[in-house]
Amino acid sequence: xxxxxxxxxxxxxxxxxxxxxxxxxxxxxxxxxxxxxxxxxxxxxxxxxxxxxxxxxxxxxxxxxxxxxxxxxxxxxxxxxxxxxxxxxxxxxxxxxxxxxxxxxxxxxxxxxxxxxxxxxxxxxxxxxxxxxxxxxxxxxxxxxxxxxxxxxxxxxxxxxxxxxxxxxxxxxxxxxxxxxxxxxxxxxxxxxxxxxxxxxxxxxxxxxxxxxxxxxxxxxxxxxxxxxxxxxxxxxxxxxxxxxxxxxxxxxxxxxxxxxxxxxxx
Length: 267
Prior knowledge:
Elements: H1 2-29, H2 33-36, H3 40-59, E1 61-66, E2 74-77, H4 83-88, E3 94-99, H5 108-114, E4 118-120, H6 127-140, E5 144-147, H7 168-173, E6 177-186, H8 191-194, H9 203-211, E7 216-222, H10 231-245, E8 256-258, H11 260-264
């Protein structure tokens, strides 16, 4: 009976997700007159936050934030899943730096491109330097630039080493960089095998299985921002800070809780 309920939930949520994603893409392509007055980066970041909140409700994702989210500069976080983007946008307007392959993913890639995400080819030396003017444009518009400096996702049991090259613009320009840690819990199932998206997992079966879960809880813990002119030292400091932010997921937050419904009305 439980498996039947999960299968029905997955099918129903898939239909809702596709419908809402289509509406979101129409909304970003045809902004309201008042929205057209906003700088492009801020308008797209605001769009992403609004529609991410609505998608959270469909997926059954509940987000709890601990600490103070950044309002400027850069944000670095450990990386487990494609859900990370939906969860992090609960805390504010952000533009994400993603690996170039994400832009080619079905639907997810379209949403990422519509949100104004920046794509980096990590196999090409100098790609971060080429993107620096776009980094500057995001920061100067007052939008937080968010990245996952591990370079790939994990099962959630560790924080992989950070690529310091991604932090070079922040080090050179003195931008504050805020560390954050994200973790997930499930009522039933395995975070490592059913929420984390890593190893040789295939997106569609993974996503359909995820939609069958009754509820997924994400906890995000924000730390204090750091500034360091040495990118390698900055990477080490941020890595240590993210690891130190890991928290037991059964603790209650003393700061702020963002549920699905609150995320929808944040704007």
